[in-house]
Amino acid sequence: MIGRLSGTLVEKMPPEVLVDCHGVGYEVQVPMSTFYNLPSVGETITLLTQFIVREDAQLLYGFGTAEERQTFRELIKITGVGPRTALSILSGMGVTDLAQAVSLQEAGRLVKVPGIGKKTAERLLLELKGKLGADMGARTAAVNDAQADILQALVALGYSDKDAAAALKLLPADISVTDGIKQALKALAK
């Protein structure tokens, strides 16, 4: 219903902001990743929004990027994850960190977010697999093309994403693809 707000930033009270749009003030809940990137009070801002209607409230959530909003939408589809929890996850991790945690199936990173227990973390990992970004953009946060190629080669050889990413972390950042594959295979053989 309300997809975007543009107006003057009137107040900043984490995690809420007040945006004046031609005389109408909208209270918008934002994740801390968006909050930290807001301009000063009195300046013009644009937020992508998600409007949620409940029996007892009408709530507006705002995001600085389309990726944040899409991730929020995917999170609230999961049973047991409401808008408040989704906002907490985005505030505690950010889209890239969440994507990496899901692709590597690291429940431990999700449990560190306030309000996320072990069962919820496992459900998040299961239900978000392949749904964030462009299939999580990168299976891990590959620093360069060579590392992405090494990772792809290891996965093609039958290693799990998690094992391949762990081996990739042991390699120097500037290694060639051929040498990287050799060293990663040696590390995985141990």
Automatic annotation (TrEMBL):
Keyword DNA repair: yes
Helix-hairpin-helix DNA-binding motif class domain residues: 73-92, 108-127
Pfam families: HHH_5 (PF14520), RuvA_C (PF07499), RuvA_N (PF01330)
UniProt keyword annotation of Transcription regulation present: no
Matches recorded under SMART domains: HhH1
Region (Domain II): 65-142
Region of interest: Domain I: 1-64
Job description of the protein: The RuvA-RuvB-RuvC complex processes Holliday junction (HJ) DNA during genetic recombination and DNA repair, while the RuvA-RuvB complex plays an important role in the rescue of blocked DNA replication forks via replication fork reversal (RFR). RuvA specifically binds to HJ cruciform DNA, conferring on it an open structure. The RuvB hexamer acts as an ATP-dependent pump, pulling dsDNA into and through the RuvAB complex. HJ branch migration allows RuvC to scan DNA until it finds its consensus sequence, where it cleaves and resolves the cruciform DNA.
Protein name (Swiss-Prot/TrEMBL): Holliday junction branch migration complex subunit RuvA
Organism: Comamonas sediminis
Source taxonomy: Bacteria, Pseudomonadati, Pseudomonadota, Betaproteobacteria, Burkholderiales
